[in-house]
Specification:
Blueprint (H helix, E strand, L loop, with lengths): L1 H30 L1 H8 L1 H4 L13 H12 L6 E7 L6 E5 L7 E3 L6 E4 L4 H13 L6 H27 L7 H7 L8 H26 L6 H10 L40 H14 L3 E6 L3 E6 L8 E5 L5 E5 L6 H14 L4 H58 L1
Antiparallel strand pairs: 1-2, 1-5, 2-3, 3-4, 5-6, 6-7, 7-8
Protein name: PepSY domain-containing protein
Keywords: Membrane, Transmembrane, Transmembrane helix
InterPro entries: PepSY-ass_TM
Length: 406
């Protein structure tokens, strides 16, 4: 069995190793994306004006300032996110683009940044991580390659664990030997012992990443994971009205007739102010409120990083529906939990640091594995030549004796 697992471990590692190294190195960068962006441009995310000004400006004034900045670019405001933290800036999203496009100082209305810091860099890293930076129809090919490589990585890790377990697994001395890195007469000793030791140290975190990764590549894998946990209807519909049924729009609803300068992409910031006031009464622990045309996404202090409540409101700003995260079906929560495990968002900066180390260790496992294989290939001709020379040497050694006897 151990010999069979060694073959599996080797022959899966050879073709998938390059892609595994790419996944690990790009993953190491993405683990601390938020921290890096905030360190590069703290003014984009935070302001110190709250020490001088006690109350922020009205939201409609902030949105108007953002609209004036965007008027020459032909862009429309699609969302605004406000935070309970007085140090945070207000984030603005625009139509046709994901994420935060610009931020505003809530106390002065000043534009504090446009375009997420190092946004293009991290977008490229994420593209390389997910689909090898391929575009168009090639993106599907890249996603498939990375998904298969992730599955192969899981098998490689599991087989490596079984191979590395000492035969006398109850012997503490053998475990110490398995976890130690040694130098020998040749570099093979270092490569082998470090490969085994680092594999043990990183295996758990690498498995969490490799087992969850294919959920973004293959629907059959995602459905299979859901079936394991007894979750049905992974292709369920969108948010309902709190009872699990779609909300039907009421015919003839009055449309807001605010002046054009306050209406952007069908949105009235005055209505947003009314919605925020209503949400604050219902969610006193709200950490952030992200407002769109008809919905508001609310993150509270007791939510994890991928959880939020959804509020729906009518054109007059009256809240008509509340969808609590706790009431969502398990099928709607699965991908959120998968992302927590995949990105290391479940244990604070300590877990993020462990994930970062594991990603670097995963890349090192690929390098050390290839080095061991290369040295093995180099030794094969020597072994063959030694085998061929052995009979001649034996014969040559016997000739003098035979002549002496004669």
């Amino acid at each position: 069995m151990r010999k069979f697992l060694k073959h599996i471990h080797l022959w899966l590692s050879l073709p998938a190793g390059i892609f595994i190294a790419v996944m690990c190195l790009t993953g190491a960068v993405l683990v601390f994306q938020q921290e890096i962006q905030r360190a590069v441009s703290p003014g984009f995310y935070f302001t110190d004006r709250y020490r001088e000004v006690k109350e922020p400006l009205p939201l409609d004034a902030l949105v108007c300032a953002a609209a004036e900045e965007l008027s020459g670019e032909g862009r429309k405001i699609s969302s605004v996110t406000v935070y309970s933290n007085p140090e945070s800036t207000v984030a603005v999203g625009v139509s046709g683009q994901k994420g935060v496009y610009m931020t505003i100082d809530p106390y002065t209305g000043e534009i504090t940044g446009k375009g997420a810091p190092a946004g293009r860099f991290f977008a490229s890293v994420r593209s390389l991580h997910r689909w090898l930076m391929l575009t168009g129809t090639g993106r599907t090919v890249g996603r498939t390659i990375m998904g298969i490589s992730s599955i192969m990585f899981s098998i490689i890790l599991i087989s490596g664990i079984f191979i590395a377990v000492p035969r006398a697994w109850r012997n503490v001395g053998q475990w110490k030997q398995a976890l130690s890195v040694r130098r020998g007469k040749t570099s093979s000793v270092w490569w082998f012992t470090s490969h085994r030791a680092f594999g043990w140290c990183c295996a758990v975190f690498l498995l969490l990443m490799s087992l969850t990764g294919p959920m973004w590549s293959f629907s059959w894998y995602r459905n299979g994971v859901a079936a394991i946990f007894g979750i049905e209807n992974m292709n369920g519909g969108k948010h309902g009205n709190g009872k699990g049924t779609p909300r039907t729009p009421v015919a003839g609803q009055p449309q807001n007739t605010a002046s054009a300068e306050y209406v952007f992409d069908g949105i009235d910031p005055g209505i947003w102010m009314k919605v925020i006031a209503g949400i604050k009464g219902l969610e006193p622990e709200a950490v952030s409120v992200s407002l769109k045309k008809e919905t508001a996404t609310v993150v509270t202090a007791h939510h994890h990083a991928r959880a939020s409540d959804t509020y729906r409101f009518d054109p007059d700003g009256n809240i008509t529906d509340v969808q609590k995260y706790e009431d969502l079906p398990a099928s709607r929560k699965l991908m959120g939990y998968a992302f927590l495990l995949h990105a290391g968002l479940w244990g604070g900066w300590i877990v993020k640091l462990l994930y970062f180390i594991a990603c670097i260790g995963g890349a090192y496992l690929v390098i050390s594995g290839y080095c061991l294989y290369v040295r093995r290939i180099k030794k094969m001709p020597q072994a063959v030549s030694t085998t061929r020379e052995t009979p001649d040497r034996v014969t040559e050694g016997k000739r003098p004796n035979s002549r002496h006897r004669e």
